[in-house]
Amino acid sequence: MIRTKSVYFAPAALILLSGCSSRLESLDDEINSLVAERSTRLGTASPARALPADDANIDSTKTPDTRNPAAEALVFKPADEARDVAKRLESFNAGVAETSGLSSAYASDEALDTIAQDPAAQAALIQDAIVLDLAEAWRTGQRSAPEYLASEEQYLLSAISLLIERHQWSPRLSNTTSATLSGQGEDGRFDSAVRILNDLAVTQKLPYGGDVQARWLWDATEQLREQSTGRYRQSSSIALDASIPLMRGAGLIAQESLIQAERNLVYGARTFERARRQFLVDVATDYFSLLQTQASIRNQVQQLKSLRTFEEETAQLVKAGRKAEFDRADASNRVLSGMASLENLREQYRLQLDRFKVSLGLPVDKPLVVGPLSLELPEPDAELSEAAALALELRLDLQNRRDQTEDARRNLANAKNGLLPGLDVTAGASVPTDGDAREGGVAFDPDDTSYDAGLRLSLPLDRRAEQLRVKQAAIAVDRSVRDYSTARDNVVLNVRAALRAVDLARFQLRLAEQQVQITQRRRQEQEIKKSEVDTRKRLEAESDLLDALNARDRAVTQLRTAVLRYLLETDTLRVKRDGTFEPLPGMEAN
Q: Kind of pairing, strands 211-223 and 189-205?
């Protein structure tokens, strides 16, 4: 059995034990620290979440189960034509109707009066309901929304890539141990030997190209059949090697991967902050849409109540002989049409609410109460040129495009460097143990030092591939500059459109409010002279009032959305750490 001394393997054992004792969880603090430092420097937010743990449950099944029964194994149950469809529709609103004005179109007038009130006031009617106003929806989305979490993860991946690259530029320890059994036969007799070789090395990249490596090589050999005292031999040596390029690969091009990783983390921070702002606007837009649908339902409920009253009055006039039968038929048709419209709005709201839950990462089956809006969004006072200039200065995505054009130019310079001849300086030195000693141990003998130095020249006889890469890089520069110019133009166009949309929404809201006032006065006049007014005209007045109310509510939603879109397009929108809207100075005064 080969004789070894523990001192020879101490370095390898130390490295092995230290590597085993390190845990992946210790990297979380390093990743979060890097992200927080870079975000703080750039004035952006950093992800506030724990990194996922490893999942030890791995499915290695080669053929996962598939559930796909044949047609004869399935059963289709036809619906009963005599079933109560209205009652079935009402059952779909369990946990929703009480908090959104979604009562059945077949309800009584008293019930319609109740559900037309503030839906949030009915939240107590649902057990275990999630109550969300807009601020809480933003907070919830930052914790569980799939889209938001994906943007966080992309930022973290940029940080991890940078840490990997930085590690490549730090001293890298490595240890390789190999054991070899060899033999040689002569006339049926075999001489066998066991050799153990341990190579402990540390390598460091140089900032302007090349690398330096220091090695400790330990070698032990034992002849298994020889009985002489010299059958076991051991030696070791320390070596230092360096390789430095002078032309191709020399200079900052050697740090290209590190430079790009550092810049990518900046891009990632900007992209993440931009995604947070976009997410805030998206959630608010969905929330405003839910409030608008609630308002449409309340408007429809009020119209349905009015139509039912009108239907009863018309029936009495027909019975008294003061109106024709077709007048009552017209009123009844409008009631039926109103009931159908209300059911359509209820289904629209149900779908909107479920999609809203999915976007926030909430359970679809969990009851959700959409609370009232408390956000005040004053309209901006800005000129088109002023808004465009502000966006060109502040847009984070545009800053990424600008800096990526510099990446393309740097890549072109690096590609041209590949056309240069290769001229490298190499040097090395080795200090072994005493060659005459059977067991050298760690007693190195400087008198036996060996060294070498030289130049290695590689002439560019075939650089076709490198020349083509230069062409690729040149095209990429032109494309990047063109894309940046197009992005600038699109930013200006979008900002101008967003600012005009604010003014247009305000104008439409004023018109809609006037239309509501006009149709309400018209309806009041008809109510005073209802015995003299034609049935069709009264029905038209009811329809016009509903359209005016819906147009007003739609204009309110458009105005709120337009203000947020303007803030997003100019990148003056600010999001707090908890994901809620941060008012700018001057907003509170309005």
A: antiparallel
